[in-house]
Amino acid sequence: MAPLAALSLAGCITPVDYGDVRHADYVADARCAPKAGEQIASEALPLFFVTSRLPDCRTPAITLTRHRGNALRYGRFAEPREMHAKEKKRPGTPVAFENESDWWRALEEETDRRHGRILLYVHGYRETFDTTSKDAAQIARMTGFDGPVIQYSWPSQGEVLKYVVDETNMYHDVRHFGSFLRTLADRPWVKEIVIVSHSLGARLVIPAVAAADRLSRRAARETNISNIVLASPDIDRETFERDIRDDVLAPERIERGRHMTIYTSLRDKALAASRALHGYPRLGSPYCFDPFKAADLKAKGVPERCYPAAIPGLTVIDTTDVSRGSTGHSNFLRSAPVCRDFVDVVADKQTRPERAATHLPHVFRLLPDPATPKERDDILCKRIPDAEAP
């Protein structure tokens, strides 16, 4: 199954195409490039977004396409809902673009009203703007985050057979995302940035944080990127181990309070396919690439699961035993035990009694809770808005 899945992920069956509309026509309407001072219904659009996707402003409801845009665009959005399109209902995300200067001013005002904290969500593979908006809204609702929530949306294709296209667009977006994160981190009114990345998004986040540290205008060794969460990270585990302690989790960063939490699962089918495609284990799966190490673990009577090495500031949460969904790739949004852990991590609680210790001091397991059956996952993870919950 793994080689077949890897072939599917390669995307050789359905290559990306330019489309039948000139890209310039998508953005010709003035709503795609608002002027300074133009008002938007910010109360109806409570969440912030930054995107490198090409927008489509030809119809009354603006949409974000799967194509690369020619620049970063800034705006506001609300949770996806049923919207009318040519007398038919379809799920859609209410959005409005905002002039870049106005957007930064609004973000500052919202941040100042809270505690100087910002949550930045970076999505992964096989996503559309609607699906990432739904996830970002769920994160905001589930965590009750006490500050602005921003989603950064890069041009993922939203299709299983477009993995390589997604990977290509992700790497193409490294400069865009890095520039945005450096600008955000340099704002003096931003006291703390909590970064949550999912899947392929980890490969955007790690180099961008390292670059923001290196090029920061803040005082020496100071950082406001303190809390980094990698959910099901689709990144080479060995590369991560080799490089992370020299930049993102360098000793001087740990001394200033930075810490990182990784959610991993051996039941993650998406990362098993990615491993087959890339040839080496992914950070978000405790698969033992070394069979001799697996045999040693078995001889010691512990699970045959291999994790990144112990690094100061790093905590690994194994969600294998409470994995949910057909792929097990989004446990932090779908499994109640993981959701509860994730909420506390975002709130900067670095220890939890529900975590089961392992033979490694930096690795913990989450175990099934008889008091929270799977049937209540959606409610406890707040996948269902409170108004719709039974």
User: How many strands, which pairing sense, and closed or not: the largest β-sheet?
Assistant: 11 strands, mixed
Low-confidence stretches: none
User: What's the pLDDT, averaged over the residues?
Assistant: 93
Shape: globular
The CATH class is identified as: Alpha Beta
The strand count comes to: 13
CATH topology: Rossmann fold
Structurally, the number of domains stands at 1
Which strand-content bin applies to the residues?
15-25%
How far apart the termini lie comes to: 39 Å
- What CATH architecture label applies? 3-Layer(aba) Sandwich
SSE pattern? HHEEEEEHEHEHHEHEHHEHHEHHEEH
Count of DSSP helices? Answer: 14
Rg from C-alpha positions? 21 Å
Strand order, main sheet: write it out: 5-2-1-7-6-8-9-10-11-13-12
Structural class: alpha/beta
Pfam family, one: DUF900
Protein name: Esterase/lipase superfamily enzyme
